[in-house]
Amino acid sequence: MTITDEKVRQIALHANDIRQTIVRMLAAAGSGHTAGPLGMSDIFAALYFHVLKHDPKNPDWPERDRLFLSNGHIVPVRYATMAHVGYFPVEECLTLRKFGSRLQGHPERQSLPGLESTSGPLGSGISQAAGYAYAARMDGKNFRVYIATSDGEHDEGNSWEGAMFAAAKKLGNLTQIIDRNFIQIDGNTEDVMPLEPFGDKYRAFGWHVIDIDGNDIRQFVAACEEAKTVKDKPTLIHALTVPGKGIKSIEHDYLWHGKPPSKEEAVAFLKELELAHEQLLK
Amino acid sequence: MIQGNMHLREDVFEGKEKAPTRNGFGKGVVEAGRADARVVVLSADLAESTRADGFQKEFPERFIEVGVAEQNMATVGAGMATYGKIPFITSYATFSPGRNWEQIRTTIAINNVPVKICGMHAGLQTGPDGATHQALEDIALMRAMPNMIVISPCDAEEGRRATLAAAQNGKPVYLRFARDKTPVMTTPETPFEIGRAQVFWKSKNPKVAVFATGPLVHNALLAAHELEGQGTGTIVVNVHTIKPLDRDTVVSAAREAGSVVTVEEHQITGGLGGAVAELLARECPTPIEFVGVQDRFGQSGEPKELLEAYGLGVSHITAAIKRASAKSEIQ
Prior knowledge:
The structure holds two protein chains of two kinds. In chain A, about 45% of the residues lie in helices and about 10% in strands. Chain A is α/β, with parallel strands linked by helices. Chain A has a single domain, classed as Thiamin diphosphate (ThDP)-binding fold, Pyr/PP domains (Rossmann fold), CATH 3.40.50.970. In chain A, the strands form two sheets. A five-stranded parallel sheet of chain A has the order 1-2-3-7-6, sandwiched between helices. In chain A, helix 1 packs across helix 3 (about 40-50). The longest helix of chain A has 25 residues, at about 5-30. By secondary structure, chain B is α/β, with parallel strands linked by helices. Chain B folds into two domains: about 5-15 and about 190-330, Rossmann fold (3-Layer(aba) Sandwich), CATH 3.40.50; about 20-185, Rossmann fold (3-Layer(aba) Sandwich). Chain B contains eleven helices and 14 strands. Chain B is globular. The interface of A and B includes residues 119, 127, 133 and 158 of A.
């Protein structure tokens, strides 16, 4: 799957739209996480607008690729992307975290079609996706299973239990995308609980590891393609991302891990994103 | 009187035929596997002890070893169930659902996928292994969880039946099994339905309804039999399904007898006793005596001596029945 410059530009425009929606929905909700969703917007745009086999009009299509989200707190990026790709109206994003909304603060499988699992409590996603991939392989299914995770949740032992399991069972149909943004709620990951050398840990655990700039759409798409060629190991796309990407004043700032923009901040953030959008159109 | 429609073994009081309830799981899961190709079994390095090894031998391609990792086992099981398999996850109850409770809550119960959590070595009769391995809080853990069904079979045959029924109900289920050999009371003809408690024994003029769960149902029957000769009539109900509790059977037995005793190998707090008390307080306030573990951990010892030391023997049940009966007369 070669990707043209024009396609990359289109995905970047979608990512910009997604970021604007994230800012709007978080400001409307008055709570939630900002840095992670903005940092992962390029990857989610690339997944839903290019990489994944899926059908927004038929979320339960049996042959779809499965995307699990382990770090459920970044779900605004998933909701926003699903809305922009046609799963539901973009305006529904403004119901995030509200009573009666399908868009729960952390994702619930039975609440909204197209989510593969319930998540939020950290560290459980790799095992769930691995179990799913294992079951699918038992039945000879050809779709791929993707699991998006965060670096902070690798403080959890369950993450590494899942990593061992996936490698032991040689799950070549499983691709993990790690949002390696070096922040967690209490500080920078290397201060809170050091994770480096992160990629080498996964190599030692028996995974195929691809190091990329997680905000480079072309690199991400190429990594997804490479993962498909590795049949006897699960693949980790070790994506170095910029938390808060797109809003210069908050990029890399761990204090933006777990808070939303105020109404005033949202106005400024949207202006910055609109300018970036115009640049992309030039 | 033993109730004929329950088709219990004729030698039920002698208790000659003994088997651990976990053996019933081992048989049942193989039968479930033969009946439905979606059934898979996950093991956390305890295949022989949990009796998962029979399934492993017959269906090696559907047996998944995860190593000593109960959190992983619950979440891998959740993933497989989300796909469409029917996973039985097997370990000791102190580890599963003990250690992996949050994974069960989030990825199985909230997710609402049909994983069957099989907790072995529940109860004091785990014996010499000591307090760390004697699960006495597992019913409480699982009973508080929405979407979860909780089953505590009274013997190996009922363990087999419960396993088969759980395989086909499409829901998250906790199945509680024990390590030690205990009397077999039921037969393949004994009716079994999840959520339907069974009246095993009923005297002509019952004064006390005894609600028991797990292998201690046998002690409850022995107590009822003994007291019958002394003129104290009882109803003995096998409450194999603790959640959902069989409201109609429990309330009608309590109403008819006028007083209640609960019997379980579990902490009274949050167990069968708690469940019965919650129900009766709402629907039919009745004097209750609780036979169970009184806010203590277990310890090493032989099963029988532990039951005596912790107040779960036949004599303790008869004493509780007498107390309950006296309370009911005062009222």
